[in-house]
Design goal:
The chain is built from 3 helices and 14 strands. By secondary structure, it is mostly beta strands. A hairpin with a 2-residue loop joins β2 and β3.
Length: 299
């Protein structure tokens, strides 16, 4: 689709007897490419700690069009760190893409943050792959329902998510919307454990693969185990307040969305420590109408 716009600009350049790589053409090309990505693309999404659509810690079952891409960063405070609790705070870098209208793939990297009191000797961090599948789309009287599963082939990941979650939206007024979410996290997991320092027992993706209770896992952090739920009150999808029970703690927060794509959020975990994050969302696949408008502007 972008190629069509480029071709239009080249034809325009020929008609006006300009060189293809003239400064004028470059400016026009940049301007219309910018319009394509940042104006015509509009995906409004809020991401949770691990980079999935949700609130602060908990995910939801909101559906997005195929081609929706989100990427961002979250900070998790030291007292509620999932890998090194009370030792190091953490940062999570993530990217999430909706491959099909019902299927979303999330890649995340959890890294401990070095402090003066606690130096780090670890490598890149916890790499994790999560798959979200929308089982039932939301209807006027029924919520949407999704299943989220973490890939079991990664080694000792601290944000393992195996949940069933439902979400329902309510229109309170012309300005206010309410999103309600409830879910349940499995107390059992399938995962790998091994000596990731020597890496002697991890010759392939099936090495040390085992089914076990999450409480017996090397990271017994209780993340999304048991019932969880949350509420989000939004003002014109531009800003809002959040409250959630993440299966262990009661968290509250707020968010703001700028230009329908950039979301900034922050929260108070269990009433005593702050977390914050930011994400950017774009739509990679565009309707034909958007491209038509760009071509009309070119000519």
């Amino acid at each position: 689709m972008i190629d069509k716009g480029i071709l239009s600009l080249i034809l325009l350049s020929k008609r006006t007897k300009d060189r293809i790589f003239s400064l004028e053409l470059f400016i026009k090309l940049f301007k219309h490419y910018f319009l394509y990505i940042f104006i015509c693309s509009s995906v409004n999404a809020q991401m949770n700690l691990s980079g999935k659509s949700g609130l602060l810690y908990i995910p939801n079952s909101t559906a997005y069009r195929d081609g929706s891409l989100s990427f961002g960063y979250n900070y998790n405070p030291i007292k509620y760190s999932l890998r090194n609790k009370n030792t190091n705070p953490e940062q999570v870098i993530f990217a999430s893409i909706t491959l099909l209208p019902r299927l979303t793939l999330t890649l995340s990297l959890l890294q401990p943050v070095q402090t003066k009191k606690s130096k780090l000797r670890e490598g890149l961090g916890d790499r994790q792959v999560d798959i979200s599948y929308l089982l039932i789309k939301e209807k006027p009287k029924f919520p949407s329902l999704a299943i989220i599963i973490s890939s079991p082939f990664m080694i000792e990941t601290a944000m393992l998510t195996n949940v069933l979650v439902a979400t329902k939206h309510f229109k309170l007024s012309s300005l206010l919307d309410l999103e309600t979410t409830v879910g349940y996290g499995s107390p059992y997991i399938v995962s790998r454990e091994g000596n990731f320092q020597l890496n002697t027992a991890n010759s392939n993706i099936f090495s040390n693969l085992k089914f076990q209770k999450k409480s017996d896992f090397v990271f017994n952090n209780g993340y999304l185990v048991g019932p969880f739920g949350g509420l989000k009150l939004s003002f014109q999808n531009k800003a809002g307040l959040m409250a959630e029970w993440d299966s262990q703690h009661l968290n509250v927060g707020m968010y703001a969305t700028l230009w329908k794509k950039w979301t900034i959020q922050g929260g108070l975990l269990n009433g005593d420590q702050f977390m914050f994050g930011s994400s950017f969302n774009i739509q990679l696949l565009k309707p034909k109408k958007s491209i038509t408008k760009i071509d009309e502007k070119v000519y």
